[in-house]
Design a protein that fits this description.
alpha/beta; Isopropylmalate Dehydrogenase; 11 helices; 39% helix; binds manganese (II) ion; binds 3-isopropylmalic acid; ten-stranded mixed beta sheet; globular; two-stranded antiparallel sheet
Length: 352
């Protein structure tokens, strides 16, 4: 049977706890579907940085390229200044490994509470495709007249035709392969960002011609936020730039039931991809065995899908749904689940 090499980055805070449950589930699915997973642990994150001063050695980035996928718990530490770990680890990995898609499925599962009144699982089922290597995230810019009253901060958004086009092509392909097989929405700000959003729109319109069977439309980012809350059923796949994507995916995570269930993938379709729960390191819950592992488990399923084990991914998705339908998990929030982190993992495993 086939063996896949997986790099594990448990990371900080509750990262190791949720990754442990994720591993439990993907191992169970692997056994059932007759393939093997070979894990290698990497100690990266705030904890490691505080101890050793090391953030992310270049040699480790090179090592990651040899894996079939990467599985990340969380990076973030309250004692480390904001920006250091984000730029030094997470964004660095995305850029260096050219993980140019940030893929965020947004699906309301049965028995999961959404803050949106009267919205059901069939109303909240979309995927957000966020460009993951350009826009306002490249770090381009600088200060003028630093530390004077006339100081100016310039933060530049870099948008290349190449970067936009590969992202939009990915989104169209994904739309075509979805069960809904319906519509791709471009989210931007053409009424103000007359260079960046204009290039996005021209590229979108050009690629759309190759997919005449799919619907495509455009919504401004502010209106997108509004419609996510009012009419989420209008959306199927949404494609957008890096910062807009960062913002609307947090909003989307909330309407699908919160950070306890939201998973994401940093995808390089031709290379190594990294999968993670969206929730962050949640330091205050560390070591209590009360954090929700479902997001991490969902990220594990996305990872198996990416390496080509679609049946195993589907098995996990079905098991998550059955576990939720059982009514034994009372809430998606840490400490309110009615079960511990490990018990939720065991329950889901029992349905595989
Ligand atoms: C995310 C996170 C990151 C981002 C941070 C931690 C740098 O919020 O994955 O959405 O802004 O991309
Ligand atoms: Mn974010």
């Amino acid at each position: 049977s086939k063996t896949y090499k997986i790099a594990i980055i448990p990371g900080d805070g509750t990262g190791p706890e949720v990754i442990k449950e994720g591993i439990k589930i993907i191992e169970t699915a692997a056994k059932k579907n007759d393939f093997k997973l070979d894990f290698t642990d990497y100690d990266l994150g705030g904890q490691r940085y505080l101890k050793t001063g090391e953030i992310l050695p270049e040699s480790v980035i090179e090592e990651f390229k040899k894996f079939d996928a990467m599985y990340l718990g969380a990076i973030g530490h309250p004692d480390v200044k904001p920006g250091i770990l984000e730029k030094g680890i997470l964004l660095k990995l995305r850029f260096e490994l050219d993980q140019y898609i940030n893929l965020r499925p947004v699906k309301l599962y049965p028995n999961v509470e959404t803050p949106l009144k009267d919205k059901k699982p069939e109303d909240i089922d979309m995927v957000i495709v966020r460009e993951n290597t350009e826009g306002l995230y490249t770090g381009a810019g600088g200060f003028l007249k630093k530390d004077t009253p006339q100081e100016v901060a310039i933060q530049e958004s870099i948008n290349t035709r190449f970067g936009i086009e590969r992202c939009i092509r990915y989104a169209f392909k994904l739309t075509q392969n979805r069960a809904k097989n319906n519509k791709l929405t471009l989210c931007g700000k053409t009424n103000v960002l007359t260079y960046a959003s204009d290039l996005w729109q021209r590229t979108f319109n050009a690629v759309a011609k190759e997919y005449p069977q799919l619907k495509s439309d455009y919504v401004n980012v502010d209106a997108t936020c509004m419609w996510f809350v009012k009419n989420p059923e209008w959306f199927d796949v949404v494609v957008t730039d890096n910062l807009f994507g960062d913002i609307i995916t947090d909003l989307a995570a909330m309407i699908q039931g919160g950070m306890g269930v939201a998973a994401g993938g940093n995808i390089n379709p031709e290379g190594v991809s990294m999968f993670e729960p969206m929730g962050g390191s949640a330091p205050k819950y560390t070591g209590l065995n009360i954090i929700n592992p479902i997001a991490s488990i969902n990220a594990g399923a996305m990872m198996l899908e990416k390496i080509g084990e679609s049946k195993a991914a589907k098995d996990i998705d079905n098991a998550v749904i059955k576990a939720l339908e059982s009514g034994k998990i009372k809430s998606m929030s840490a400490g309110k689940m009615g079960l511990s982190t490990t018990e939720v993992g065991d329950l889901i495993a029992s349905f595989i």
